[in-house]
């Protein structure tokens, strides 16, 4: 079975607003003013909670304070989970593309470096969890992307063949995951990385989800 696996943050949905709000709430609980800006720091937000904590702490002159990152990480995740879908929006055409792939006979799933519980919660809150046959998060297995194991597991759980898959993503992590798994990657240019993802040399890029079914048909006939 041919399978299309999607990254979540920055690919299916722009989650940066809620991630940054959670990080700033965490910094306020630490006794600081908000340290991250929703527009300027969106790319960092989509790299996850620890990346946001590192950036905020660096602005306090505490660059490299990994003990503080570890100490506050669970607090940030808790705050994020409490308001996970306030600002988050699916990218235009995302679910229409998923439906088109389904009609064309592809299975679809999600492979994300967001903790599985939070990914399941978000997709359920957005009302689209049932559209995907699988969801593998950062803590589903003992390893996470760019290790290829989570991608292969997402394919298997969707009922597919790991050798007949393609990964849709937005970062070097997704590109390297696909490369390690021996499958093609399609990177989106509408995320924070923009057209700069071309430097990662994916097999294909798309500027809108309307383009995806045709691209997948070419890469995974």
UniProtKB/TrEMBL annotation:
This is phosphoglycolate phosphatase. The lineage of its organism: Bacteria, Pseudomonadati, Pseudomonadota, Alphaproteobacteria, Rhodobacterales. Gene3D superfamilies: HAD superfamily/HAD-like, Putative phosphatase, domain 2. GO terms for cellular component: cytosol. It comes from the Bacteria. Its EC number is 3.1.3.18. Pathway: Organic acid metabolism; glycolate biosynthesis; glycolate from 2-phosphoglycolate: step 1/1. Belongs to the HAD-like hydrolase superfamily. CbbY/CbbZ/Gph/YieH family. It catalyses: 2-phosphoglycolate + H2O = glycolate + phosphate. One of its GO terms (biological process) is DNA repair. GO terms for molecular function: phosphoglycolate phosphatase activity. It comes from Rhodosalinus halophilus. Pfam families: Hydrolase.
């Amino acid at each position: 079975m041919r399978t299309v696996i999607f990254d979540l943050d920055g690919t299916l949905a722009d989650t940066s607003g809620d991630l940054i709000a959670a990080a700033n709430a965490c910094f306020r609980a630490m006794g600081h003013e908000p340290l991250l800006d929703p527009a300027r720091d969106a790319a960092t937000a989509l790299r996850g909670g620890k990346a946001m904590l590192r950036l905020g702490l660096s602005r306090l002159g505490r660059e490299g304070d990994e003990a503080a990152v570890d100490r506050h990480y669970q607090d940030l995740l808790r705050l994020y989970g409490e308001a996970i879908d306030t600002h988050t929006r699916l990218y235009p055409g995302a679910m229409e593309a998923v439906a088109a792939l389904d009609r064309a006979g592809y299975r679809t799933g999600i492979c994300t470096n967001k903790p599985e519980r939070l990914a399941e919660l978000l997709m359920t809150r957005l009302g689209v969890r049932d559209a995907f046959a699988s969801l593998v998060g950062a803590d589903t297995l003992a390893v996470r992307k760019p290790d290829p194991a989570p991608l292969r597991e997402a394919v298997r759980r969707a009922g597919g063949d790991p050798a007949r898959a393609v990964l849709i993503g937005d970062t070097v992590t997704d590109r390297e995951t696909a490369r390690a798994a021996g499958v093609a990657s399609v990177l989106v240019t509408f995320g924070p990385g923009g057209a700069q993802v071309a430097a990662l040399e994916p097999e294909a890029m798309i500027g809108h989800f309307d383009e995806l079914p045709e691209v997948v048909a070419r890469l995974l006939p």
